């Protein structure tokens, strides 16, 4: 950070810290006690002669104690928001006949064009699913028809082929292995359909790498609920029948950090993903056993 920029940030921090303390009627002694720092340290931060920001954990503790946004305190946004207000900004989108959830997802993809999209799928990545897989998965689904799922998958695949696409996908290695052997919800999907699906997924990963990158983590050591992060604009957590969509920088950053942890924990890296999919074996149906 340039010296002039740092000085402006320090000045903004001091002014907003004083403003937040005055607004909430908090004394220096009380704030120092809540944050866990010496009163003399806080006095130094409030001094016009101070030219340094405190440590990151101290700034975060101050924001929490004063119930203001960390970005606002540092001058990264002009909007002062309490933690309660941030939670109220979380939007719940429930599926409806006239405005299906997928319309929101498609719009969010368009808004994030040119930015990195991070994606944890609920089963397999939607953009890589074959029609047989989608029909099997959604034929009895309460809130989305197979036809809607196929259309949404095609839209996502078309998006993934745009020249400025930058997408990372994280899922557990065990999810793919379970699909290959027909475990869980895939027990009724024929071996031929599973072979077709794996071949399609391998082909797509080969075609679109490095714009599309799949990382596989160990499901025994890490866990992730399904979610998508659209640049730094929005994050949507999928709950099966609705999305919780967050537009606040704090929530987006939190999920981004979680996603980065999944990548760091990956046991199959993106450049290995296509080959790994190609190694998965689909056992034939045993005589007398329903596919």
Question: Explain this structure to me?
Answer:
There is one protein chain. By secondary structure, this protein is an alpha+beta fold. It has two domains: 3-85, lambda repressor-like DNA-binding domains (434 Repressor (Amino-terminal Domain)); 91-279, Endonuclease, Chain A. Helix content is 50%, strand content 13%. It is built from 13 helices and eight strands. It has helices at 3-24, 28-35, 39-46, 56-66, 70-73, 83-88, 101-111, 131-138, 146-160, 173-181, 191-208, 249-264, 270-279, and strands at residues 91-93, 116-120, 166-172, 212-217, 227-230, 234-238, 243-246, 266-268. It has an eight-stranded mixed β-sheet, sandwiched between helices. Helix 2 crosses helix 3 (39-46), helix 7 (101-111) runs parallel beside helix 9 (146-160) and helix 11 packs antiparallel against helix 13 (270-279). The longest helix has 22 residues, at 3-24. The chain is elongated, with a radius of gyration of 24 Å. Residues 94-101 have low confidence and may be disordered.
């Amino acid at each position: 950070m340039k010296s002039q920029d740092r000085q402006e940030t320090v000045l903004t921090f001091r002014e907003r810290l004083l403003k937040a303390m005055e607004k909430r009627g908090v004394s220096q002694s009380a704030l120092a006690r809540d944050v866990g720092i010496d009163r003399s340290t806080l006095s130094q931060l409030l001094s016009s002669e101070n030219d340094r920001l405190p440590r990151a954990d101290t700034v975060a503790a101050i924001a929490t104690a004063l119930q203001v946004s960390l970005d606002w305190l540092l001058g990264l946004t002009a909007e002062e928001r309490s933690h309660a207000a941030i939670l109220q900004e979380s939007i719940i989108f429930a599926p409806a006949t006239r405005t299906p959830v997928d319309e929101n997802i498609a719009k969010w993809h368009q808004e994030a064009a040119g930015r990195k999209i991070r994606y944890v799928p609920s089963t397999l990545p939607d953009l890589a699913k074959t029609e047989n897989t989608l029909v099997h998965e959604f034929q009895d689904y309460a809130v989305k028809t197979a036809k809607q799922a196929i259309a949404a998958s095609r839209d996502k695949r078309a998006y993934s082929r745009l020249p400025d696409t930058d997408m990372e996908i994280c899922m557990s290695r065990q999810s793919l292995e379970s699909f290959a052997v027909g475990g869980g919800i895939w027990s009724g999907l024929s071996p031929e359909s599973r072979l077709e699906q794996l071949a399609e997924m391998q082909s797509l990963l080969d075609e679109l790498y490095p714009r599309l990158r799949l990382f596989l983590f160990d499901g025994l050591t890490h866990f992730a609920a399904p979610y998508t992060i659209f640049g730094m604009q929005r994050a949507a957590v999928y709950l099966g029948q609705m999305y919780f969509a967050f537009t606040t920088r704090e929530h987006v950053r939190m999920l981004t950090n979680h996603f980065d942890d999944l990548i760091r924990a990956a046991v199959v890296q993106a450049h290995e993903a296509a080959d790994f999919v190609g190694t998965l074996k689909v056992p034939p149906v045993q005589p007398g056993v329903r596919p």
